[in-house]
Amino acid sequence: MRFDEAYSGKVFIMSNPSYEESKAVIYGMPMDWTVSFRPGSRFGPARIREASLGLEEYSPYMDKHLEEVNYFDAGDIPLPFGNAARSLDMVEEYVDKLLADGKFPLGLGGEHLLSWPIFKAMYRKYPDMAIIHMDAHADLREQYEGEPLSHSTPIRKACGLIGPENVYSFGIRSGMREEFQYAKESGMHMSKFEVARPLKEILPSLAGRNVYVTIDIDVLDPAHAPGTGTAEAGGITSKELLEAIGAIAKSDVNVIGADLVEVAPAYDPTEQTQIAASKFIREMLLGWVK
Amino acid sequence: MRFDEAYSGKVFIMSNPSYEESKAVIYGMPMDWTVSFRPGSRFGPARIREASLGLEEYSPYMDKHLEEVNYFDAGDIPLPFGNAARSLDMVEEYVDKLLADGKFPLGLGGEHLLSWPIFKAMYRKYPDMAIIHMDAHADLREQYEGEPLSHSTPIRKACGLIGPENVYSFGIRSGMREEFQYAKESGMHMSKFEVARPLKEILPSLAGRNVYVTIDIDVLDPAHAPGTGTAEAGGITSKELLEAIGAIAKSDVNVIGADLVEVAPAYDPTEQTQIAASKFIREMLLGWVK
Amino acid sequence: MRFDEAYSGKVFIMSNPSYEESKAVIYGMPMDWTVSFRPGSRFGPARIREASLGLEEYSPYMDKHLEEVNYFDAGDIPLPFGNAARSLDMVEEYVDKLLADGKFPLGLGGEHLLSWPIFKAMYRKYPDMAIIHMDAHADLREQYEGEPLSHSTPIRKACGLIGPENVYSFGIRSGMREEFQYAKESGMHMSKFEVARPLKEILPSLAGRNVYVTIDIDVLDPAHAPGTGTAEAGGITSKELLEAIGAIAKSDVNVIGADLVEVAPAYDPTEQTQIAASKFIREMLLGWVK
Amino acid sequence: MRFDEAYSGKVFIMSNPSYEESKAVIYGMPMDWTVSFRPGSRFGPARIREASLGLEEYSPYMDKHLEEVNYFDAGDIPLPFGNAARSLDMVEEYVDKLLADGKFPLGLGGEHLLSWPIFKAMYRKYPDMAIIHMDAHADLREQYEGEPLSHSTPIRKACGLIGPENVYSFGIRSGMREEFQYAKESGMHMSKFEVARPLKEILPSLAGRNVYVTIDIDVLDPAHAPGTGTAEAGGITSKELLEAIGAIAKSDVNVIGADLVEVAPAYDPTEQTQIAASKFIREMLLGWVK
Amino acid sequence: MRFDEAYSGKVFIMSNPSYEESKAVIYGMPMDWTVSFRPGSRFGPARIREASLGLEEYSPYMDKHLEEVNYFDAGDIPLPFGNAARSLDMVEEYVDKLLADGKFPLGLGGEHLLSWPIFKAMYRKYPDMAIIHMDAHADLREQYEGEPLSHSTPIRKACGLIGPENVYSFGIRSGMREEFQYAKESGMHMSKFEVARPLKEILPSLAGRNVYVTIDIDVLDPAHAPGTGTAEAGGITSKELLEAIGAIAKSDVNVIGADLVEVAPAYDPTEQTQIAASKFIREMLLGWVK
Amino acid sequence: MRFDEAYSGKVFIMSNPSYEESKAVIYGMPMDWTVSFRPGSRFGPARIREASLGLEEYSPYMDKHLEEVNYFDAGDIPLPFGNAARSLDMVEEYVDKLLADGKFPLGLGGEHLLSWPIFKAMYRKYPDMAIIHMDAHADLREQYEGEPLSHSTPIRKACGLIGPENVYSFGIRSGMREEFQYAKESGMHMSKFEVARPLKEILPSLAGRNVYVTIDIDVLDPAHAPGTGTAEAGGITSKELLEAIGAIAKSDVNVIGADLVEVAPAYDPTEQTQIAASKFIREMLLGWVK
């Protein structure tokens, strides 16, 4: 008596209703508690699923069809409102469970701080992992106005966890002077302003590595993704981001998980942000889940 | 591994996950194929559920809490795009099944034509039924530009099915001359412009009767419900509609099912239409499901 | 080879394509040059026509059908951008011509200053005329920051022209102290805050009189007409304005012409302002053109 | 070399640039950290000031002009992002200072929790004070999901501070069962759904009392104030709120301070919420500051 | 007594009021009956005309002025609501008539299926014709969910009519696997993702040919044209589309007619979609009508 | 008792509260009286300041921090509504004063005509000055419909003032034929369509020169700046404009002042226009004020 949930956008199109049979798991993390400027990414996962209704199931970029990938949409983790510490713990426990079950975790944010507990869970299973990070912001702060759990900090934490030499940032065009200095001195990789070209240059050196990919939707120019909390002019096109996703798919890295964060639908009455985001998720499923 | 669906607005708040245990069933009918002016009510049910997240579970109008009512949210019926005849058949079969299982059907539209198959299913079980209808439009046309399956026709069809003397319309302020003539001559009841006052006068005469209630959100003034396809100035306030819902709850009629239709979120960037609609659904659950 | 202009909202629905045969003439005045706060009423006439597509042609308020009234839609007068003095002259000449041809002029604004040249043309033909004025603002200033041609002045000018004792204002809730003092001392009639009740009391005293009616859409509360330049909280409902239009229709006054001004569509993404305005125009055609 | 700040809406119109000379002080509290549903009231004070540009300086409700009241606009208190406890302390200290200087405090929110530190400061100076509270929500919770500093709690805290018998709530239409029970049993006054009528009945009993007034903009129906975080259908009109403000002005109570909270501009593209709010502030200045 | 229709955007700027004297004819096709996702392109033609008011009449791209081209704007064909088959017949008859009168047909959509009857009429007159097609979607389906009259099918139908070897598609980035296979195997030309570069390579081979050009506005990235039903990320810029239009103008092909479809204004509150579309129409008039 | 004005966006972030100590002065010019299409840039300066709240204070483009530049934000010049001539005089007097005090003037518009009085003041102090102009429109008209004070004329006036050979326009893609002819014949420099590449070619020839830079936000494509009065498709990206600003900073020209005009927030609900504009202002401060 319950109707197919893909109908009317409750789950991502073509998802397999069985967790057990699936290879990848899509999960939402509707938290924006630590956002300093324009909040609203808590509604991102739901609107990305809804927009997936308008997608074709076949990709001419990958020459692949969604029926060739087996994935389950778990819905949103019920993160406790206003409690960042507990929310992050829940995400970490959940990803631990997914990894124990051999799943490929594909997270939908929510704010970027949510990548931090994912990193920790991934690292326990893949201690040799590298991180590819696409973003407008460096996210390399140690804290934000005294608060270590802030959406400006996850990549700095990642550097501490897996070593800065294993972190590769692309498209960065905003941050404090200290963040750019840290990037220069720490041994991490940072490509400013651009994504596809420098990524293609780096990928061969990552061949054979286990790589987690985290994408902040604001790596796109506001023209392509106005629906985000801290829009930053001077970004890349959605065409370039599709090219980057494709480059990873065609490379020899082993993608072990991924997330797409910071979609905040309230600031985009045209809905193009979630429409683009749902296409990126399709490409990630088709190109990265093997 | 699947998360609670009420979280992030996938089902109406406080719904019981078990169909079997439930007394009432909320179901969506995302169809707007026959709409002549501004389409978009296909997205109504999803946004009403989403808006239910902002509701209190207790009602000071009814002095009752949603945990006192047992209801299941079935999601949306997967109506075939563009095929009105088949869509109506599917709704009719579904309501037949609900009634066979002893459930109280609570439908979310979608366009008003969807009430027609519901009427047919209800009538098979309750051949003595009456209909209370709140709407800006008479919906008494025999056809619309040659098409008998139109959103302008369901109440005329209802008159044919259960007898015009069993149909009670309120708040009507738009229609063709022929529709108003039919209302006058056929023996049905029609209150123009107003809802709460005339309804309270009529209710005693319906005491003990089995009554189905259909509400078109455009009975409200566009100030209170701009998110609808054929907004019509001069309507009632949401306060008056809450009063009407309460009057039925306090009366001696036996409500056997209900629907709320024509919420079209795209025309209301303030979201107040679905916010109001979700409150009306809460009141209907609390006041009418016994 | 040219298609019917009523189709897709180029002219008001059901207008007669022949100027000669028509009794009333709808004309647009797309000027907002003297507006001090939020400009945009220059687009009002076009959007009112467009919204007329969603109207029923029959009115249950008047029990009358648009085919019973013969009117022509002349389009918009090509007022020269930025030149208020010349624009007003063009309106005056045009209304002179309409009156010479025996037409009932029905103007769509544009800003309220446009009523001033209409008053002058009407007065030449009807030296005994009275004016009924519904508005949030008194519009009784002598000038606005030194400028006598301002949208805050037309009713003061009208008092000078036809005598304050022949001017009746309703719904006023904003103005300078001097305007309210003038209203009290000059002998004009001013009803503050309310429209329908005081209007009904006044109408019998105007029986047999020639009356021009000017309605500023902001007499409505912003809840009912957000699409206007100087929205003012505390206004009347669209229901009350419909009641007022009906009261005039049922009275013994002889309406000689009318206008509806200050619809500024850009501030109302819900489109309810022009939807309501087109309904008021329908009622004015049905009730006032005899 | 610095230009007049009232120009372009930086301060409320007609404010006196001198703190020392002023009788009343307008201050903003741009905090929305504890909001559970739709955040954004942090931008409320700035947009209310901006909208004041469109106001007339004279009020026909009060027959008074803003030049008859002497007030200073202090701007917004720089509340530390995300730190509710410290923010509340800052507000309390600030109001203490205002009272020490003999000023009438007029606060602009921001979320409703901000009224709590104001109550504490007021109570130190006026231990016999009463509170008049207009709101859609009871705000009588002891805590919200474990958190005592929540926007659902300020009136409960007020009851604890000054005694429930000195708290008068109006317009309440949403809350938990426990809040309505508390209202009934505690000895406080609560009028459900309505404001102006019950307020007028109560006011004589408050004659001569020192009264602080706190208004949550969501006491208005969403039709009149869509720009708020937790819009609740079934509210009052802006006309009724103007009537209530006027009734207090005409009564014999001694208003000692006031606030207007929960204006969240992002949800209202028509801007009518802040337009109405700025009018209420004008009326409060004219009617309550003596 | 009727005013110039170009004034206030009723016809495309600078159109000649005489059908007889004109070389090209602009006509609107306000139909979106077969759209599966977001309807609304029925309002496209009217808003493109309205936006033409903001255009310069001279083009620095073409170094030409609109007064050098003679065109008539016929308004919108009154297509019968909901009846796709009859609507297509009407379009076909109309284009037949235009061609019989020696006119260059320039159609404004509405949905892309409307190009199908145009193709048929063109083919009768120009049996050697080729088609240039710019679009995000392949539109090569044989049917859509059983329905052969769908907006996903016109290019497949065109291949059947004029031979796939005479069909040239550019910018395609969405479709079913079967559509891309058909493109590969049938002998038609398809350039994926890009438009200007491959078009310039192809144009010499079309020298001297009669060519009809159909442009779906969604060939643009949603950043440049958010106002369309099925926005698809990863598209081209408006700069590239202007370059493509210019390349055709400078080539030796003989353009025999053209259309621009799928502008759906409701999804673009910035109005940039119709602003861009009106500029493309100007360029097509200046560059292609000879 | 007055709070920091940078808080809540009243002044541009990090501005020095002392005029005397500052090197540069930001001033707003809220005038749009001569705009022919979509008015609203009068609100541009206020929203650019507000958006500056979301900026980082450090720029990775310039590798510089705002604390390294000393600037004062003077607020908006109180230009008299509707009086263009007097407004321009006030701007000229104000810039004269700034220059007399040795300040670097950084103006925020407001319409482009406002650059004309600035040019005059600059020229008195720097008779050898050159102008770099980035814009979609040539602005080379002698008058607009008879009016010499129009937003289409400032660059033509500049040519008359400082000699066409000292004027360099970039990104131009709209104008009358006469304007392009003038550009060709007068000796001025005009680069059509592009900005960064031709600018970099020209800059060496301007080495050592005193240069004033005027930027019309509509040089950007509407995808990047929809919030402007006369949006023109086919423009540059915000990335290219950042590159152009950087190229000037790295060149050997001596920037003596600058303005950024035509931001009209009402047409951009995503707010990306003012977000981008505030970033451009930051880069201009960091790169051009020496």
Automatic annotation (TrEMBL), chains A, B, C, D, E, F:
Pathway it works in: Amine and polyamine biosynthesis; putrescine biosynthesis via agmatine pathway; putrescine from agmatine: step 1/1
Cofactor note: Binds 2 manganese ions per subunit.
Domain of life: Bacteria
SUPFAM superfamilies from the UniProt entry: Arginase/deacetylase (SSF52768)
Pfam family, one: Arginase
The enzyme's E.C. designation: 3.5.3.11
Example GO molecular function: agmatinase activity
UniProt keywords, alphabetically: Hydrolase, Manganese, Metal-binding, Polyamine biosynthesis, Putrescine biosynthesis, Spermidine biosynthesis
Catalytic activity, reaction form: agmatine + H2O = urea + putrescine
Obligatory cofactor(s): Mn(2+)
Gene Ontology biological-process annotations: putrescine biosynthetic process from arginine, via agmatine; spermidine biosynthetic process
Residues binding Mn(2+), per UniProt: 112, 135, 137, 139, 216, 218
Family in the record: Belongs to the arginase family. Agmatinase subfamily.
NCBIfam families: agmatinase
Reported function: Catalyzes the formation of putrescine from agmatine.
Protein name as it appears in the record: Agmatinase
Organism: Halalkalibacter nanhaiisediminis
Lineage: Bacteria, Bacillati, Bacillota, Bacilli, Bacillales
